[in-house]
Every structure is written in C-alpha cells, then in structure tokens.
Amino acid sequence: MDLYEFFNLFYPISQSEYDLFRNSLKVKTFKKGDLIIVPGQVQKELFFVRKGVQMSYVETVTRIHVVAFTYPPNPCAIPESFSFQKPSTYSLTCLSDSEMEYISFESLQQLFDKSQSIERLFRRMTEAILAGLINRHIELHALSMEERYRAFCQRSSHLLQLVPHKFIASYLNIDPTNFSKLFNTIRI
Fold first, then answer.
1. Tens digit of pLDDT for each residue in 76-115?
2. CA-to-CA distance for 36 and 178, rounded, in angstroms?
3. How many CB atoms lie under 10 A from the CB of residue 101?
4. What is the rounded distance in angstroms from the CA atom of residue 41 to the CA atom of residue 23?
5. 3-state SS class at 93
6. In whole angstroms, what is the distance from residue 172 CA to residue 141 CA?
7. SS3 47
8. Widest CA span of the chain, in angstroms?
9. Segment (H or E) for 103
C-alpha cells in the first residue's frame, strides 16, 4: 500500500493535496540498530516507513519496556515529542535496515495552514492512533496472556518473523519463557 492509499483510509484527500504534501517529503535511510530518537532529544521530523521495522521503548535498570513497533506504511514517531516539540522520555530505534520519508514539524504546520483537508487527515490519523493506544491499554490490563498473544497475531502476525521474540514478549507484557510456549503451541 502506498502512502496515498494509506492516507485515504483515514480521510480522503485529493491527488493535488497529496502532491502538495508529497513535495514536502524527503528520504532518510537508517541501519539496523540506529537510534532515531533518544531520551532528551526533540523529534523534529515525522517519518513514514517505506522499509523496515522500528521500535519505541523505555529502558529501565532491569529491562526494556517496548511501547510500539512501526512498519510500512505507518507513521514513525515519539508522538508527544513531535506533536508538542518537547524532549522525548523514551527511545526510537531501527530493528532492521530502514528507509523512511519524512516531513519537518515546521513544514507540516505550514501545510496545515494551506490545506484544511491535510490538517483534517492528520487529525483523523491522530484519533485512530489514540483509539489504538486505548485498545492496547485495555488489552494489557483486561486480557489474559494468551488473549494478548492472539490479538497481537491477528493485528501484526508478520512481526513474529521480523522482530526478536523478546521484544514482542515485552510489548505484550509476557515473560519470554511463556511467550515461547505460546509461540510454539498456538497456531494462527
């Protein structure tokens, strides 16, 4: 799915409005293991994944707590850092070689001033991300370990082949040993 098709899942914009947006994009490549954002850094660019898988996480003394995975054609960001232009409290890294298109915060704000449809598109995408975060919060607190695993597999089963299982286990708040048992016994 290309970026135009992806955008139209949230709000239909014209080809000319998409072209206006597209003309503001630049491309950046990252290697596996590259840190995109670290705690204390302000995210000044919003990325759209063309290739690769990325992970946002909080690192404590005892472990890594995975917040999210991103992959094509999704946006890739520390949302509160980008949206409010404030320092991030967690990290964003590449789990594989990655290629992303990006737009600067300033350029995006200028596009919002030029196009109500682009602004509405981004509002709808933000609303969808918020709804997804609420659903994830409910899953983490109300579902059993097996139910969380099954829900993840319904949403993003392709990540089982692309992401180290210890990170998926962290994302699902499942002990790695229990995750391994689920992976080996439940067929999706």
1. 999 999 999 999 999 999 999 999 999 999 999 999 999 9
2. 31
3. 19
4. 26
5. strand
6. 10
7. strand
8. 53
9. strand 98-104
Phi, psi of 92 (to 5 degrees): -130, 120
Half-sphere CA count of 33, side-chain side, radius 13 A = 0
Peptide bond into 87 cis (omega under 30): no
Residue 154 has pLDDT above 90, yes or no: yes
pLDDT at 188: 75
Neighbours of 147 (CB within 10 A): 11
pLDDT tens-place string over residues 107-118: 999 999 999 999
Rounded to 5°, the CA angle 186-57-142 comes to: 50
Q: What single string gives the DSSP state of each residue in 49-65?
A: EEES-EEEEEE-SS-EE
* Separation CA 77–CA 54 (nearest Å): 10
- What is the signed CA dihedral for 172, 142, 154, 55, rounded to 10 degrees? -30
Helix axis angle for 145-156 and 116-142, nearest 10°, is 150
123: left (phi over 0), alpha (psi -120 to 50) or beta: alpha
- Coil, helix or strand at residue 85: coil
Give the torsion sign (CA, 170, 174, 180, 185): negative
- Quote the CA–CA distance of 42 and 153 in Å, as a whole number: 32
**The residue type at 87:** P
